[in-house]
Amino acid sequence: MSKVTVLNHPLIDHKMSQVRDKHTNTKAFRETVSEIGALITYEITRDFKTTPKTIETPMAVMTAYELEKPVVIVPILRAGLGMVDGIHNIIPTAKIGHIGIYRDEETLEPKSYYQKFPKTITDSVVLVVDPMLATGGSASYAIDVLKKHGVLDIRYVGLVGCPEGIQRLQNDHPDVSIYLAALDEKLDKNGYIVPGLGDCGDRLFGTK
Ligand code: PRP
Ligand code: URA
């Protein structure tokens, strides 16, 4: 069963209250989503393996430690883009892949329209990034695609999840750890998370 980590951190809770507030404007929403992405990155990377390397400081030779595997960030378009800059600021060596998926508004089934991944992706730790884990269909589909590409080490990173989405992801991909800034109560009849933060893509890009 995949591990679920809900970041109970005062700073993240504070920033989540800003993005949840419907009065927060597009600029502040976008900046704060990115900042939360950066803060979550500390927790996601906590168990990353490091490898020793001999370096010279201005004072002495020493053994330092570097990340063992490269990192690839894969945002699910569109809303996943909102978290990329924050994560990338913390791991600037990470490469970025993209997967375009939208939910059919009637069936809520994921529809894929774009995929582009760096060549090194199979040997990397891959962070699948999407702020909203609602039915879990989009995240599960994205992870299916990455596994078909041969990726072995995948983590899901989101802002808001709900029990339905977590259950779906755990059933479909029990090997994938889930990291969330907050865990909400439920889905409404239209597949939106309640209380949630509304339509994340529209709020990030001002499309409503
Ligand atoms: C939203 C969100 C997720 C998906 C989550 O994207 O960003 O990708 O819905 O829902 P699910 O867990 O039920 O699959 P949306 O389909 O609105 O597309 P957009 O990012 O292009 O706005
Ligand atoms: N997508 C969103 O943007 N918000 C939700 O609550 C569910 C899916």
Question: What would your notes on this structure say?
Answer:
The protein is of the alpha/beta class and 208 residues long. The protein has one domain: Rossmann fold (3-Layer(aba) Sandwich), CATH 3.40.50.2020. Helices cover 33% and strands 32% of the residues. The termini are far apart. The mean pLDDT is 97. The protein binds 1-O-pyrophosphono-5-O-phosphono-alpha-D-ribofuranose (PRP) and uracil. The site of 1-O-pyrophosphono-5-O-phosphono-alpha-D-ribofuranose has 23 residues, from strand 6, strand 9, helix 4 and helix 6.
Q: Write down the CATH topology.
A: Rossmann fold
Ends apart, CA distance between termini: 38 Å
Oligomer: single chain
Q: Give the low-pLDDT segments.
A: none
Q: Which distinct ligands sit in these coordinates? A: 1-O-pyrophosphono-5-O-phosphono-alpha-D-ribofuranose, uracil
**Named CATH architecture:** 3-Layer(aba) Sandwich
- Helix/strand-derived class? alpha/beta
Write the layout of secondary structure elements.
Elements lengths: L3 E3 L3 H11 L5 H19 L5 E7 L4 E7 L3 E7 L3 H10 L4 E2 L1 E6 L6 E7 L8 E5 L2 E2 L3 H12 L4 E9 L1 H10 L4 E7 L2 E2 L5 E2 L5 H6 L3
Parallel strand pairs: 1-11, 4-5, 4-6, 4-8, 8-10, 9-10, 10-11
Antiparallel strand pairs: 2-3, 6-7, 12-13
Helix pairs in contact: 1-2, 2-3
